[in-house]
Hints:
Blueprint: H1 2-20, E1 29-37, E2 43-53, E3 59-64, H2 69-99
Antiparallel strand pairs: 1-2, 2-3
Amino acid sequence: MRDGKKKIESEITKLWTRLAATGGMLKGTVSKVVSGKRADGSGGRESHLLTYKGEGNKTRTVYVSKPRVAEARRMIANYQRARRTLEKIVELNVRLFKME
């Protein structure tokens, strides 16, 4: 029983270390928007938007410059990875709680 507890505590410590090293995070999605496109398909201006749920569950939209689109997508992936890691930590804490 004690070995199982130590193993879980060790795994939790590893996950916290991984979480701390995640880096910058953004929540939401990046989408491409084309505006001013003519009926014949010519023209149009391409821009990128970051959309996320802010405080009070209100939808927020932020323009993302073209050079920073890849960075924004990487930060969104970091957020998703951090969420999954945090979920694992919670599950391990529940198992640990049940042992005591």
